[in-house]
Amino acid sequence: MVLAQLGGSISRAIQQMSNATIIDEKVLNECLNEITRALLQSDVQFKLVRDMQTNIKKIVNLDDLAAGHNKRKIIQQAIFNELCKMLDPGKPSFTPKKGKTSVVMFVGLQGSGKTTTCTKYAYYHQKKGWKPALVCADTFRAGAFDQLKQNATKAKIPFYGSYMESDPVKIAVEGVERFKKENCDLIIVDTSGRHKQEAALFEEMRQVSEATKPDLVIFVMDSSIGQAAFDQAQAFKQSVAVGAVIVTKMDGHAKGGGALSAVAATKSPVIFIGTGEHMDEFEVFDVKPFVSRLLGMGDWSGFMDKIQEVVPMDQQPELLQKLSEGNFTLRIMYEQFQNILKMGPIGQVFSMLPGFSAELMPKGREKESQAKIKRYMTVMDSMTNEELDSSNPKLMNESRMMRIARGSGRHIREVMEMMEEYKRLAKIWSKMKGLKIPKKGDMSAL
Ligand code: GDP
Q1: Are the C-beta atoms of residues 294 and 7 closer than 8 Å to each other?
Q2: How far is the CA of 146 from the centre of ligand 1 (A)?
Q3: CA 137/CA 46 separation, integer angstroms
Q4: What are the DSSP calls for 249-275, one per residue?
Q5: What is the pLDDT of residues 359-393, one digit of tens each?
Q6: DSSP string spanning 58-77?
Q7: For the domain 3-87, what is the CATH code?
Q8: Whether residue 116 has its Cβ less than 6 Å from ligand 1
Q9: Residue 58: what pLDDT?
Q10: Which end of the chain has fewer CB within 10 Å, C or N?
Q11: What's residue 132's pLDDT?
């Protein structure tokens, strides 16, 4: 069961409970059992699930709730809070600061995606104005240095490593020294992963850690490892001071829940998740928005984060202003389609919104989606200014649609399909009404 399915099962359970005429012990139990089953099937550790269930029952005492109370809301909130609690052990042990040198060491098993993640992490920060650098202290795996070098070169990030030197501690120390002198503010040390947990791996990790004194150790974990996640995470935590976790391959068919319960084993938060092989398929992990997304409630903060990343800086204030007004016109849709075609990754922006990406831009079918968007734009090219600037879908009566179909040379069915898409997006958009608008140039205020 992938995470999206887990989310679906949980929201369905909540929905079913909401549909019941009276919410009594039986309805609540059914809902909780359904959620428990979904979590267990997703490889979340049994003890965590059991604790969660007990806690919700403690909070939601149906007998004590007076008739006036909105039981559904209270139960929903309790489920949301407990899921958040399960995934949130607090802040990472250290948070690097831009402009101040920090050393971050990456650890994890071979194949977990460690080297890829090092570059993604560096690239993410570089885009935000940091000066990152990569050090390859993996002398065990043949080709590790080449891989890091290739990734780093592509992203224009300075790197350090050696084909000749076999002592990882020496390389790590030299690399860190060098980049400290060059005033890099984020020095990332990639260590060896080996095949499985073995004494030599942990010993080497300890030595590199002692020699480079990292400010933060990040444990990289493949989301597909399932129930083994808890023990693996704990073994790493016992050898080095893991301060944060990054879970990779969340895009795959992995169950994901196991890796998430690793949070409990390391008592360290997940700070990012990897969602693909490419450099920018990397997302900040925040518990509340994640759970909100998991439950199909949308992830507004992730959405804002992505807007800052992919919408050209000069267009951001205008787009946000329009968002806050909540009026979604066909012209806004047209402009956003233009962005999607121009910039590609903006598709990721909308994937943060419930219902958007799945239908308009399914992953892996980008070409078809682009063709569809182009067709919609051709249709819109035959609209009048009044039609484009109106946020009232009723304006688009049948005779107008017929005219547009004739003008654009498309079938009326396509015009109707485009309008359906518009209505769907407008509904999502309307939820943005009242959004706080940051001052021009100060996107960090969000
Ligand atoms: P390492 O041995 O831990 O350094 O792992 P690598 O960085 O070499 O990654 C192993 C494989 O996983 C490579 O093929 C990566 O492209 C792939 N990979 C890493 N992160 C992700 C991710 O988030 N999603 C997907 N789909 N693949 C990933």
Answers
A1: yes
A2: 15
A3: 37
A4: -TTSS---HHHHHHHHHHT--EEEEE-
A5: 555 556 667 777 888 999 999 999 999 999 887 87
A6: HH--TTTS-TTS-HHHHHHH
A7: 1.20.120.140
A8: yes
A9: 87
A10: C
A11: 97
347 ligand 1 Cβ < 6 A: no
In this predicted structure, what is the pLDDT of residue 366? Answer: 65
Cα of 278 from ligand 1 centre, angstroms: 9
With beta carbons less than 8 A apart as the criterion, state whether 107 and 238 touch.
no
Q: How far apart are CA 212 and CA 103, in angstroms?
A: 8
Q: Which two tokens stand for residue 329?
A: 């016109």
Q: How far apart are the CA of 274 and the centre of ligand 1, in A?
A: 9
What is the residue extent of each domain of the chain?
Answer: 3-87, 102-294, 311-430
pTM of the model: 0.68
Strands (E), 275-417: 282-284
4 C-alpha to center of ligand 1: Å? 21
For 170-194, give one letter per residue: b (16+ CB within 10 A) or e.
ebbbbbbeebeeeebbbbbbbbbbb
Look over the chain and give the mean of its residue pLDDT values, rounded to a whole number: 81
Architecture per CATH, 311-430: Orthogonal Bundle (1.10)
State whether the beta carbon of 150 lies less than 6 angstroms from ligand 1: no
The span from the CA of 212 to the CA of 240, in Å, is 13
What DSSP character marks residue 282?
A: E
Which tens digit of pLDDT belongs to each residue from 240-281?
A: 999 999 989 887 666 666 666 677 778 888 899 898 899 988
C-alpha separations of 90 from 22, 46, 77, 93, 133 in Å = 37, 21, 20, 9, 28
Distance of CA 188 to the CA centre of its chain: 21
ipTM of the complex: 0.98
pLDDT in tens, 106-123: 999 888 999 999 999 999
Give the ligand 1 atom nearest the CA of 120. Answer: 20
Look at 10-19, 147-156, 183-192 and tell me which has the smallest mean pLDDT.
10-19
Q: How many residues does the chain have?
A: 446
Can you read off the two tokens belonging to residue 376?
């919609």
Q: Given pLDDT bands bounded at 50, 70 and 90, which one contains residue 1?
A: very low
Q: Which CATH architecture has domain 102-294?
A: 3-Layer(aba) Sandwich (3.40)
